[in-house]
Every structure is written in C-alpha cells, then in structure tokens.
C-alpha cells in the first residue's frame, strides 16, 4: 500500500489549504491516480487496522439496493449513522440538546462529544425498535444502492445497472460500456450525501477483470482506505461470477484531501512500516454476486498496525 502512503505525503507536502462543506478545513490536491494489482494481495491498509467487516457489510448493502441505515445498524455497522442522525436532529420531531454542527463541536469538546453519543445511541435504538421512525429517519434517500440497482427512468421504469454490467461482461467482454454511475443529477439534492465514489468502469483483458473508479471527493485518511477495499472486493466478486481472474483496481481521485484535524493521525501512520497484504477468501459455493452474505467473505493473513482514531467530518 505504498501508493496510498505516497498520496498522504503528497497532500501534506503539496496540498493547498481549502475550506469545505463541513467547516473543518482541509489540505487538498486535485487529480490523482493509484493502481493496485489485485493478484498481489488484497489492498487493505496495514499501517492502521481497517475494519474489513464494515467494508463487507456496506458493500452488500449497496448490492442489495438498500438505502436505509437500519440494515447496517443491525449488522453493527455505524459508518453511515451520522448522516441519518443529522436528518433527525434537524427535524421538528427532535427535542433533545442542540446538535448544530455536532461533528465539529464534538471533535473540540469532550463533554459535548458524550452528549452527542448519548443522542446517537438513542437514535440507533429508535431505528431498531420503531419501524415508522426507521422509515422516516433511517432512509438516506436515493444513494448508491438505489442508483446501482434501480436507476429511475423517465417512463417510470428502473435500470439495474449492476446486473446489466455483469451480464455484458459475460457476453461482450470487450465492450467499452461496462459502466455504472451513482451520480444522478436529477436526484442529488434528495441524497443525504451526494456520491463521492461516483463512476466506475470495468475492463476485461487476458482473462482478467479490472475496475477503474472515479471519486469526485476523497477523505484520504478515513474514507479512501474503505473505498479501495470496497471496490477491490466488488471487482473480485464480479470476476468470480464471470469466471475471470482479477486484474487491477485503478483509483482516480478528484479532490483528494486530508482534514486539518487528521494531520496528527496521518503523521503517526506515515511513521509505520507497511506489512504483507492479506488474501481474500470467497465462498466457492456462491455463484452469484447477489447471493453473498457477510459470512461468505473473509481475509487470511491480515496483520495490521493498531487502529488510529479520528473524527469524521459531517
């Protein structure tokens, strides 16, 4: 994962200081590309522990076309909680403590962070126990899963982009149209968070499947390690169904940034030596990408450095 560490160094040394939507502030570069040969090992970061189980459960959530955090919370995956929580605390139904700019404030105030966590725990409890609450506040709008599996057409129909691409890879592997987009201009304003990893293209050559992702906005410390692992896993799953080997994952970034409140953590990470990459294990009994469950996907030989905690910018 030297490519990732080189990106971190590049941003710290050459990035420009920019404001951002969250009010946190970043150092940023524009236009950057990394390439990962998936035959050399699964590209999960080893300079800090990255929760592969969360990568898996989120990707399966996308694959099922789901857009409600209830499914993730049931799987003990809380990486999307903040965006659904924000919807609740900004609503008329919320009567608790003031949560304005809760992400930024919690990062600076340990006492307020505890208050936020109490309200977040209450929110998750209500999501799991109250169906009407989950339907209203758990749904994130037409985010990734909706666009991948049910892109709406003008005549009221939907397009299953993912299934269509898999079928085309099987019957017409040399096509240059193996494309899935999550960026739907007609529905961006309805999404809790507009797609960051927005556009992917698959490529078949010499019996190997490669994937290139264009990511418009890249939180390099927290988000990008997940994105690399998620799309590498997606490439493996599609390759398996299509009876192909894996080739490269090509990761093209638009605005690649480090938040200013992550700089100490990045410095710690850069002081660590990368370790050997793990190997991905998939259940051979599963034929279709749509049949996989969390227990069908595992890693072998993952020996990372300890986790490095950092606040998420909402």
From TrEMBL:
It catalyses: dUMP + (6R)-5,10-methylene-5,6,7,8-tetrahydrofolate = 7,8-dihydrofolate + dTMP. It comes from the Bacteria. Keywords: Cytoplasm, Methyltransferase, Nucleotide biosynthesis, Transferase. Pathway: Pyrimidine metabolism; dTTP biosynthesis. Its EC number is 2.1.1.45. DUMP binds at residues 21, 176-177, 216-219, 227, 257-259. One of its GO terms (cellular component) is cytosol. Residues 2-314 form the Thymidylate synthase/dCMP hydroxymethylase domain. GO terms for biological process: dTMP biosynthetic process; dTTP biosynthetic process; methylation. It is found in: Cytoplasm. SUPFAM superfamilies: Thymidylate synthase/dCMP hydroxymethylase. It holds the Pfam family Thymidylat_synt. It is an enzyme of class 2 (transferase). InterPro entries: Thymidate_synth/dCMP_Mease, Thymidate_synth/dCMP_Mease_dom, Thymidate_synth/dCMP_Mease_sf, Thymidylate_synthase, Thymidylate_synthase_AS. The keyword Disulfide bond does not apply. Its main location: cytoplasm. The active site is at residue 196. GO terms for molecular function: thymidylate synthase activity. Catalyzes the reductive methylation of 2'-deoxyuridine-5'-monophosphate (dUMP) to 2'-deoxythymidine-5'-monophosphate (dTMP) while utilizing 5,10-methylenetetrahydrofolate (mTHF) as the methyl donor and reductant in the reaction, yielding dihydrofolate (DHF) as a by-product. This enzymatic reaction provides an intracellular de novo source of dTMP, an essential precursor for DNA biosynthesis. Belongs to the thymidylate synthase family. Bacterial-type ThyA subfamily. NCBIfam families: PRK01827.1-2, thym_sym. Homodimer. HAMAP family: Thymidy_synth_bact. This is Thymidylate synthase. It comes from Psychrobacillus psychrotolerans. The gene is thyA.
